[in-house]
Design brief:
mainly alpha
Length: 182
Amino acid sequence: MAAVGHAHPPRRVRGRAAATAPRPATARTPVLLALGLLVTINVVALPLRTPAAPAGMLTLQLTADPTTAAAIVASWRAAAWTPTLWAHGLDLLFPVVAVVAVRRLVGTSTVAAGTVATGAVLTAAVADQVENVATLVTLLGEVTAAGVGVTVAAAGLKWAAYVVAGGALGAVWAARRRGGAG
């Protein structure tokens, strides 16, 4: 026997009928997570700005001289060891979050820039993790020329790849603004 009554109108969400299918994933959450993590890392890393490391973590990433790297590590051990470990620990998460954010931003882009952005951010993420591991080995062990060399090379590749990814994301955005398939 059929139930007697009336059918309820479709549920409305922000002025429109709610879809029966799940909402498509948006880029907002991973992008906000990536930005929030980046801000958190930078706030936690503020004490790492010492006379030996005026640019904080970036100073160590781009220092090719083992003697300078040893002075930076010594300054952090003396003044800011806990923030040093927290900042570098959080920095291990950033490449993963960045890859997810870029993939969501690019989505199903059919423009070549979407492929370039994805490839560049994956390259940056791998280089970032190599740099993070080399940095942690330097922080927790001995400062060596090989460790410093790996850190500098990986950091250089990472920053170059993030710049390429940013440019490619700009091209994807421009294609979408023009109404392309971007």
